[in-house]
Amino acid sequence: MENSVPAESLDSSFDLVTRMDATEQSVEALRGDVDEVKARLERVSRAAARPVIAGSAEGAPSLELKGFVDGYLRAGRETEWKSISGAVPSDGGYAVPREIDALIAARLKSVSPIRSIAQVVQTGSAGYRKLISTGGTASGWVSETAARPATATPSFAEIAPPTGELYANPAASQAMLDDAGFDLPTWLADEIATEFARAEGAAFVSGSGTNQPMGFITGTTSTAGDATRQFGTLQHVVSGNASTLGTNPELKLIDLVHALKAGHRQGASWVMNAQTLALVRKLKTSDGAFLWQPGLVDGQPDRLLGYPVVEASDMPDVAANTTPIAFGNFRAGYLIAERSATAILRDPFTNKPFVHFYATKRVGGQVLDSDAIKLLKISA
């Protein structure tokens, strides 16, 4: 009768052999890693060891030190001792890559905030018109059976904001566009947008009205009140001094506030530049309290006599015959009419090998309601 080995014993023996083989392979791999680490350490040690002159005794000067003494200290040969430097191209500077920050720093441009407080409309044509009712409707008291005579009817005025076209036409070579280390077209577009904002903001304040908006301080002004002043003419309060805000400028500022109708004072704001604001911030009442009040919450505007102050760099400084301070409801008082947003045309054909970025924008502006804005005028 033949002896038979159970199948379970055969399987166990096979698993044991497999595990032993796997263990031996892991040990061999670990030995190889250890040998490799030892070899690296030996190479590092050899590289760190300074070569000595053959046949010299222990502690003799090294080859580098001997070359320095013989070549530089004794013979004065500076070229005998050189270092690799990125500052000089021939000493290794060519091998150092130049890194350019992708964010280009630029001088901050002063952009007028008038657009943010004025009324802005998008127009469909260049000939934009707006009708303004100047009042004139009359009424009367009568008895129950008395006759009803005719009363005056409203009168209208037409507003046609002077419009001009802003343009910019910078050029860049095609090679520059291909090789620049930053997005040159996007950077140019941002620069154009910032310049357009600066130019139109200045025009909203002091534009001549010829091929550009008419600024709110450019037109004629008068000391007459709203009831008698001609429509389209702004009212001004005289400072009483030829070079300053006056002897009691806080009183003039109060007069300016109350020259504005109560309905317009809801939403009114002050507009002046930084130099004028510095003078105004120093004004105090008779009990020593400052008229200017800082915003108590982050993002809240500073206030003067309870109304927010808007700093516009395009407003004039305090000088004779100028209007450095404006107070009013600019949402009701000044109209900005835009024909379209900024359009940029890429032109690679006109002036080869340069690519032009031709940008245009049509915008107009004019005083909408002359009762809604008041000016402080320095005496001539």
From TrEMBL:
<dbReference type="InterPro" id="IPR024455">
    <property type="entry name" value="Phage_capsid"/>
</dbReference>
<dbReference type="Pfam" id="PF05065">
    <property type="entry name" value="Phage_capsid"/>
</dbReference>
<feature type="coiled-coil region">
    <location>
        <begin position="20"/>
        <end position="47"/>
    </location>
</feature>
<feature type="domain" description="Phage capsid-like C-terminal">
    <location>
        <begin position="92"/>
        <end position="377"/>
    </location>
</feature>
<dbReference type="InterPro" id="IPR054612">
    <property type="entry name" value="Phage_capsid-like_C"/>
</dbReference>
<keyword id="KW-0175">Coiled coil</keyword>
<protein>
    <submittedName>
        <fullName>Phage major capsid protein</fullName>
    </submittedName>
</protein>
